[in-house]
Write a structure and sequence with these properties.
Helix content is 30%, strand content 30%. The protein is α/β, with parallel strands linked by helices. It has one domain: Rossmann fold, CATH 3.40.50.
Length: 215
């Protein structure tokens, strides 16, 4: 598991602005900071992928550069993950992409969270490296349900779960329910979930902060 804010870097400024109630209501800045985190996590993830050397012709001579023979497939969970996904995609710019419409069903305070998944559009993922992108990894149920729905598009070789902020309960749930090789790439690993399954300290509703309140 890689946690970005365990390492001193400018990424901590982006995370601070995402969380800070005095700053986070600037929607453009909020989306920009999510995109920046996506880029940084994509870069760190890329170091673990398989590269092969290819010969390149420059204007003056030839040189050999390690390149990806195949880009991963990126799957984004709508809607809050859109700017975060865009950051990941900007670094894997040749990747195929898929989209999942997953959201929490209404539930009373303290009740278990149920996930509704109404939309799936994905390329062939059979034998591919797949990157699952969502801003907030809370219970982990939407990630697991996403993986279950993707099995109709093939069986991935490896799954990378990328989240801006995660809770330990969600990490544990995914580890328990996903039997594929997988890794976690997180901007921050927070303390816990509250009784309503929201991440503490978290940052609030990422979708509303990025795009405005929903009905």
């Amino acid at each position: 598991m890689f946690v970005l804010n365990h390492h001193p870097s400018v990424a901590n400024h982006f995370l601070a602005e995402l969380r800070n109630t005095a700053i986070q209501n600037d929607r453009l800045r909020f989306r920009t900071n999510l995109e920046r985190l996506g880029q940084l996590l994509a870069y760190e993830l890329s170091k673990t992928l398989h590269f092969q050397k290819e010969e390149i012709q420059t204007p003056l001579s030839k040189t050999v550069i390690p390149l990806l023979p195949q880009h991963p497939v990126i799957i984004s969970v709508l809607r809050a993950a859109v700017p975060f996904y865009q950051g990941v995609l900007s670094y894997f710019d040749h990747s195929d992409s898929g989209f999942i419409g997953a959201y929490r069903k209404h539930h009373a305070y303290g009740e278990d969270v149920n996930i509704s998944l109404d939309y799936v559009a994905a390329p062939d993922i059979n034998g591919r490296t797949v990157i699952l992108v969502d801003t907030m990894l809370a219970t982990g149920k939407s990630f697991v349900k996403t993986v279950d729905s993707l099995l109709g598009h093939g069986r991935p070789e490896h799954i990378h779960v990328v989240a801006a902020i995660a809770a330990p309960e969600g990490i544990a749930y995914i580890k328990e329910h996903i039997d594929f090789p997988h890794n976690f790439w997180l901007g921050a690993l927070d303390e816990k979930l509250d009784p309503n399954s929201y991440i503490l300290p978290g940052l609030g509703d990422a979708g509303d902060l990025a795009f405005g309140p929903k009905l």
